[in-house]
Each structure stands twice: as C-alpha cells, then as structure tokens.
Amino acid sequence: MNPILSALPTTVFETMSQLARETGAVNLGQGFPDDPGPEDVRRKAADAVLNGWNQYPPMMGLPELRQAAATHYKHWQGLDLDPATEVMVTSGATEAIAGALMALVTPGDEVVLFEPMYDAYLPLVRRAGGIPKFVTLTPPHFGLTEEALAKAFSPKTKVVLFNNPQNPTATIFGEADLALLADFCVRHDAIAICDEVWEHVVFDGRRHASVLGRPEMRERTVKISSAGKIFSLTGWKVGLVMAAPAIMRVLAKAHQFITFTTPPNLQAAVAYGLGKEDGYFDGMRADFQRSRDRFASGLRDLGFTVLPSAGTYFLNVDIAPLGETDDVDFCRRLVTESGVAAIPVSAFYAEGAVRNVVRFCFAKHDATLDAALERLAHRRPR
After folding, report:
1. Which has the closest alpha carbon to 81: 267, 242, 250?
2. pLDDT for residue 381
3. Which of 232, 275, 314, 329 is most deeply buried (CB count within 10 A of its CB)?
4. Residue 265 to residues 13, 221, 236: CA-CA distances in angstroms?
5. Can you give the residue ranges of the Aminotransferase class I/classII large domain (predicted)?
6. Are 303 and 317 in contact (CB under 8 A)?
7. Rounded to whole angstroms, how far apart are CA atoms 332 and 235?
8. How do residues 84-143 score in pLDDT, each as one tens digit?
9. Which of 249, 257, 260, 201 has its CA nearest to residue 222?
C-alpha cells in the first residue's frame, strides 16, 4: 500500500456524517445545499442525455463549454481567455487540482499551502512528491502577512496552492493580499494554482477578483472553477481550468491520463448555465446571504461568538468563550447530545494548530436551520 494514502484516517466529514445518520442529527457538517439546483440547467442536462451525444467528448472539453467559460469570465472577471488554448474541462475541481500538482510538481519541490485548507490538498501534494510549507492563518480574520509568507517561500518553492474565497474560513482575500501573494510568486518564480470554486458565492456586494487577472501573474497562474459550486449542483463534478497555453499543454497531459473526459450532457448543461442572465447569479448570492444572516443571528441569540463570513456556504463560531478548548470533542458532543452535526476546523490544519473554531453549513432550507437552532437552544452540549 502507498503509505501516503493508506495511513490517512477516516475523514472528519465521514465521521460526523455517520454520527448524524446514526443519531438523526441535523447535518450542518458537509457543504451541500438542500435545494436541487436550477431546474432549467438540470433539464438541459436531461435533454442532452436523451437527444445529444453520449460517446467520448473531446478530451479538452466540449467547444461550446470552453467558449461559454471564456465569455463568462470575460463578463464577470474581465479575463481575456482563448477557449481553444487556455480553457479545459475536468471531472470536478479536485481532479483539476490533482492534475495540476502532478503536472507542475516534481519530487523535492516545495509547495506553499495556506492552512486551514481543503482536506484534499495535503495528501495530493505529498503524492506528487512535493514538500509542503505552511502559512498558518488564525482567527478571527485569517489574514495574510508578509512575515508569514517570507517564512514559507524559499528558492525551492515551485507552486503555491491558494484558495480564494477560502474554505473553511469563509474569508475573501482582497486586493492587498493578492498583490502580496503575486509579489512573492514573481520573486520566487513560482506558479500559483488558484482554487476559486467559491468565486460566485460571495456576499455583501463583493465581486471576486482572480489572481489570473493580474498582469504579472497571467503566465504563472492556474485558475480552477467548479460548476458544482456555481450552480449548487455539488454532485455534478464539472471543473473548469484556465491557464496560459504553455502551462495548459502540460495540464492537459495530466488530465488525459486521470479521467480523460467529463460526461458530455453535464458539459452541455454547464455551457447553457454559464450564459444565464446576471439576475440568476445575483439572486443565488442573495438567497445564500439571507440564510447566512438568519443562521448567524440565531447563533448569536444563543450566545455563540460568530466569526465573519464573506463567502462560501459556511459560518464559523469561536467556542473558546464557551470555555471549550477542543473542537473535535465539542463537535462529537454537539452531534450526540444536541443533535446537530458540525465540523471541527482543526481538521483543516496539518497539525491542528487552531482548536477553538467550529464550522456550520448554512446552505439549507429555513426549516433545517431553524431545527438546528431549536435543538441548540434546548440541548446545548455539556
């Protein structure tokens, strides 16, 4: 067995979800919405299965989807992309991340990671032979500092894996952060793999800015997006990858020998969806923001310290004011005693550097959120 993978424990997501199933708890752990997603996009996929092409699509993706992606990102983020040479379709963003690491990292290269981080990053970096170097972000604001970057970057830095908006912290890194990161990448001749799957799930009037849009980063950035997050269809696993041609040629070779293609009916539906009017995207954000505010208000009324949430499906709470010092133990008691499943944020750190933050998913129906709040009101963990 490969020790990098065989030594991995059961993920905290599966552990908490299993406990939720066993106890009948309200599951606010895993990040998926209750809503089935936009009906017109789903109908487009169904029609494409019945009446469209169901054999191998082009390895790089359907031309119509690649063109739709270029048009979409020109409109929303001001990016000028050649759909023929700078856009590729993958079977989800995680495949895109894995392929990018395999394509760009050779054994011994250093890879800068920002923790807390999506749980797939670290094993994928190690499987590619990379040496992880951590920038540890801390609550309540989880901000970047020049000092922290200076400690992580070195002459051996090859790749930076950067998630913005960030899961699990619900942080959006602003213009000053992106400029600081770009400066370090240019100085150290590093490539930025930018996981931007939450780019449309941003609140309070914010608009996402891609690292790929910075002139000094145009030739050294891989932008990764997710149709599953854009359309609240997390099971679809359709990823979009954008990079300059010299990088894309190598990324395409990795993709060819991982999944090769992505279901053509889903690609056709995503191409249609990316062309939807601005009102769809604005309305989607407004709906999630309303759920965020509803749940945050309820948590505060119950005495929880709620941390800022600028994007994603997540709210974090600081449990230290409750006298709690172990988020894993707190989450276990939360699900077994209170009937609500959440995720300990320490699971997103390589060595659990922060143990006082718990993550809830608010992308749920009002009835689901209200049921969770009612349980927390009457059965707070001991």
Report:
1. 242
2. 66
3. 314
4. 29, 29, 11
5. 26-376
6. no
7. 27
8. 999 999 999 999 999 999 999 999 999 999 999 999 999 999 999 999 999 999 999 999
9. 249
Structure tokens at 258: 């991982």
Only one residue has tokens 């905290």, namely 12
Written as one string, the DSSP assignment of 270-338 is HHHHHTS-HHHHHHHHHHHHHHHHHHHHHHHHTT-EEPP--BSSEEEEE-GGGT---HHHHHHHIIIII
Average pLDDT of the chain is 96
Kindly tell me if the per-residue pLDDT of 382 is higher than 70: no
Q: Is the pTM of this model over 0.85?
A: yes
Residue 227 token pair: 């149709």
Handedness of CA 46, 73, 255, 133 (dihedral sign): negative
Classified as helix, coil or strand, 192 is: strand
Ordered domains of the chain (ranges, CATH): 3-30+279-378 (3.90.1150.10), 55-276 (3.40.640.10)
E strands, the chain, where? 26-27, 87-90, 110-115, 131-136, 157-163, 191-195, 221-226, 239-243, 305-306, 314-318, 340-341, 343-344, 357-361
In sequence order, the 6+-apart residues with CB closer than 8 A to the CB of 356 are: 139, 318, 319, 320, 324, 325, 327
